[in-house]
Design brief:
The complex is a heterodimer. Chain A is mainly alpha-helical. Chain A contains one helix and no strands. Chain B contains 20 helices and three strands. In chain B, strands 1-2-3 form a three-stranded antiparallel beta sheet. In chain B, helix 3 packs parallel to helix 14, helix 4 crosses helix 14 and helix 14 packs across helix 15. Chain B starts with a helix and ends in a 17-residue tail after the last helix. The chains are: A mainly alpha, B mainly alpha.
């Protein structure tokens, strides 16, 4: 039981820390991705209008 | 009422912002690929945000909280498997990178490329049916959460959930995947903040030592060791591995994110990093469930676990976690958490509405038209059919979702309804991509036997979820192999499609 508890404690710390760190990174870098996505969608529309 | 005015202001502000930015997405919709897969323009970070937001909802918090309450730390095994399998799929690109190369928009579309239009139609019907039944319980469970935490009178539950569903429909119908992705980003940030806040509050109030002691006292070693736990055991663990491989590769809403990425490499990166989020997606709400057991688990025993008693009332285990939040969160924080949970609710529901309605329009309506000899619809009309399907799915959910109560643990109900089509679809996809001999006969047999293997044992023979899951996957695999060996050799092979060949 103790070994399982230790295993779950470590897993929980990894899970919690990953959740926090990835959220922080995605929050900052996601804005740039959104901007690029809008640009790409606009370009696709212009390209299809020209065809 | 548990809500202070500041909480209402936060929630109303969130809802207004969410709908406004959702409607903003409409301007980018020019063709059906924009509507369904955001023009395949998703980068890594926005891909992670939309995939995580799609698969983390209030329903996820509720069923994982229930698992934590009922099975203690053993439940963590389910979360660990879902995360690790996702990382493996991401690192190897198993199925997802081939899917992305094919420039698909729905999973059943693959069945026409590899097998036949008829099998695409049959799979489309099964996928839509299983998916909508799966989503059918979301509204009621989400409504329970909101009424318990906010303290709204339960007689207003239907009105509250109807308004939320209508708001989701508003931006999903007009802006499709583009609107869903933009709102998913905001909703992901909010729901993550709420998740982190609730985790801190739950452990602070219940106390880590008390939580461990409560699980040990109530469940003994079975509360920590998933192999010893009678509800889990080796059969559960193996079934979960199979199920999560199929979910991460063939579940329409997850697959749509992979189809929407810029490249197969981007899809692999998105899947790998989201795998780490999946660990927290499961374990953190399970931790809240254990905290709720520690604080409220003092009622009569049911299956060896005490029912929660809150303010003198006996609740169901699934309601213990929201009841705990209603008690431990203060004004302001409660508003942020409920806004976060609403964000989680809306991101999941909008993505699921789009996912299942896409299957109805692209894999049921379109093939039916073609089978009847009618010409294919142009992009504008396809979008219109998608929007109508979206509305109809929403309407169905409003009635089914608010009145139907699933039997047993919600997590297991969701697993079984998913298995109805996932077992056959997963096997057919693997066969179609990696086995040259897989043919139409095998495909039909896999889909029939996978669905039968889930429905008959669970609903008629009353087998456990684990054995039902095994039966479904085994029968589907047996069906594909037997059918493919007995039937004529396949005439179609799967080759990547170039961008110019598609919209």
């Amino acid at each position: 039981m103790i070994s399982w508890l230790n295993f779950w404690t470590v897993s929980l710390i990894v899970a919690g820390a990953s959740f926090v760190v990835i959220t922080a990174i995605v929050t900052v870098k996601g804005f740039e991705d959104l901007r690029v996505m809008f640009k790409g969608l606009q370009k696709q529309q212009v390209d299809s209008d020209e065809l | 009422m548990n809500f202070a005015p500041v909480d209402w202001i936060i929630v109303a502000g969130y809802l207004t912002l969410s709908v406004a930015i959702g409607l903003f997405g409409k301007r980018y919709i020019g063709n059906v690929a924009h509507y369904l897969v955001a023009g395949r323009e998703l980068g890594t970070f926005i891909g992670i945000a939309t995939l995580a937001a799609t698969e983390i909802g209030t329903i996820t918090f509720m069923y994982n909280g229930e698992l934590g309450y009922r099975y203690g730390f053993s439940a963590f095994a389910a979360a660990l498997i879902s995360g690790v399998v996702m990382i493996i799929v991401g690192r190897t690109g198993f199925i997802i990178s081939r899917f992305r190369e094919l420039r698909l928009m729905t999973v059943p579309e693959f069945f026409e490329i590899k097998y036949s239009r008829g099998l695409r139609l049959f799979t489309g019907v099964l996928v839509a049916l299983g998916g909508i039944l799966n989503m059918g319980v979301f509204l009621k469970i989400e409504g329970e959460f909101l009424t318990i935490v906010s303290g709204i009178d339960t007689k207003h539950l239907i009105a509250v959930m109807t308004v939320i569903l209508l708001l989701e429909l508003m931006y999903t119908v007009v802006g499709g995947m583009v609107s869903v992705v933009i709102t998913d980003f905001v909703q992901y940030v909010l729901l993550s903040i709420a998740t982190i806040l609730v985790s801190i509050y739950a452990v602070y109030h219940a106390g880590w030592g008390s939580m461990v002691a409560k699980v040990a006292h109530t469940m003994g070693s079975a509360g920590f060791d998933p192999i010893l736990n009678p509800k889990f055991g080796m059969t559960f663990l193996v079934w979960q591995i199979l199920l999560w491989f199929s979910v991460h590769t063939c579940w329409q809403t997850t697959a749509m994110r992979m189809f929407s990425t810029k490249s197969p490499e981007t899809s692999k990166r998105v899947m790998s990093w989201t795998g780490l989020i999946y660990l927290g997606r499961g374990m953190l709400p399970m931790l809240w469930g254990i905290a709720a057991l520690t604080l409220f688990g003092s009622g009569t025993l049911r299956n060896g676990v005490p029912l929660p008693i809150v303010a003198g009332h006996t609740l169901e285990p699934i309601d213990a976690m929201p009841a705990m939040l209603a008690q431990i969160l203060g004004p302001g924080i409660k508003g942020i958490v409920v806004a976060g949970m609403l964000a989680a609710t809306m991101s999941v529901n909008s993505s699921y509405l789009l996912g299942w309605s896409a299957v109805i329009s692209q894999d049921v309506v379109m093939p039916l038209r073609q089978l009847r000899g009618k010409p294919p619809l142009n992009s504008k009309h396809q979008i219109l059919v998608n929007r109508i399907a979206n509305l109809l799915v929403g309407l169905f959910l409003m009635f089914w979702g608010l009145y139907y109560t699933p039997p047993g643990a919600v997590y297991l109900y969701l697993n079984i309804t998913a298995t109805i089509f996932l077992a056959g679809a997963f096997v057919c996809v693997i066969g179609g991509l990696y086995w040259k001999r897989a043919n139409i006969t095998g495909g039909y047999m896999a889909m029939f036997m996978g669905a039968g293997g889930a429905i008959v044992p669970f609903f008629f023979l009353h087998w456990s979820e684990n054995m039902t899951g095994f039966a479904a996957f085994s029968l589907a695999a047996g069906g594909l192999v037997a059918g493919s060996l007995l039937g004529k050799p396949p005439t179609r092979s799967v080759a990547p499609v170039s961008a110019k060949e598609t919209i």
